[in-house]
Amino acid sequence: MPKATQKQTKEHNTSLILKTIYEQDGTSRAEIARMTRLTKTTVSSIVVDLMQEGLVEEIGFGNSEGGKPPILLSVVDDARCFIGIDLANSEFRGAIVNLRGEIVQRLNLSISGRDSVSALELIYTLIDKLLAVSDESICGIGIGTPGLVDPHEGVIRRAINLDWQDLPLRNLVEERYNLPCYISNDCQAAALGEYTFGENSATSNLVVLKVGRGIGCGIVLNGQLYYGDGSSAGEIGHLVVNEEGESCACGNRGCLETVASTRALTRRAREIAQSNPNSILFQFATTPAEINTDILINALEAGDEDIINVLAEAGNYLGIALANLVGVLNVHHIVIAGSAARFGDSLLTPIKNTMRRHSLSILAAKTNVNFSSLGQDIVIKGAASLLLANELQLV
User: Fold this and answer.
1) Residue 345 φ/ψ, nearest 5 degrees
2) Distance between the two ends of the chain, CA-based, in angstroms?
3) Among 96, 163, 194, 380, which has the minimal tally of Cβ within 10 Å of its Cβ?
4) Of 236, 293, 290, 228, whose CA–CA distance to 264 is shortest?
5) pLDDT digits (tens, 9 = 90+) for 151-209
6) What pLDDT shows up at residue 244?
7) Is the Cβ–Cβ distance between 176 and 124 less than 8 Å?
């Protein structure tokens, strides 16, 4: 193995010191030297460089242990910002995100009625508008998209809802804006967002199950996003759970998405309304065709037993899927994200109960399943954290 050059060594040490300050907010130069095993001279020199770049600042004094009190250091949260984009199903969501995952500016644009070409143009419009309102130092663009994605090449291999196939989105964006761009499947981005900015950031292993119009999961193992050999790990939504079930867009029948996605829940609710003119659903909709997720929430809050049962059935299927993940990965932290999280405990409780029934009890007992605290921003923040990981090595 060739010996590292002086430049490579300094870049490595700079990255290590910056990450230490980022993770140990309010730490001193001496403490950084102890944790990184670098000399105090090296640490002091690199800290000077980071302060000159505006990335690090002195924030006061720590407790003295007999001598002069140590000067504490912190990363300047707004020193660098990223554009994070979520190519959600009903709208494209974008935001400017700082180093701590805080939203500085946000913008949503509707995608209704657009074809593949105009959908791409809408991404450009979204980025243009965000750049126009930004006073921050934007150092990259991250995009979370539904579909099959090659994150290493930045190519969307197949996105059915957007009618994209082999779209070299990273190259297109980088050439247009002269900024680094990283692309990931939205569920994988959500997992990285949860790992970086969520309440489970203290763990090195977690699974995020994203349930909305589609279903997928993102996996973080040993602090690294797990893509799989073909970069498509987590396509759990197309596992067949009912061979006699509905046809799926993927060509199979009875996929998990056909029984537990919000589209499936809405379809079941419409069927209930069509067969029962006295359904509580008609308190909130005049026709079955008007029923959507918001109306399901209203009916649930009104105590509609039919909707409670529909959610219990969906939760059962999701719980079986999670039981398989628990058995295969033995991950102790599973997070539910996506628009279905709005159903709360009516969905979460059957998920947990079924997962426990279908898993080894010793594994299930140590597995925590809960909702993400990041809400609808989980993919945006995950897309931004792709830059945090790849450009600044802070993840």
Assistant:
1) -65, -20
2) 26
3) 163
4) 293
5) 999 999 988 888 899 999 999 999 999 999 999 999 999 999 999 999 876 788 999 99
6) 81
7) yes
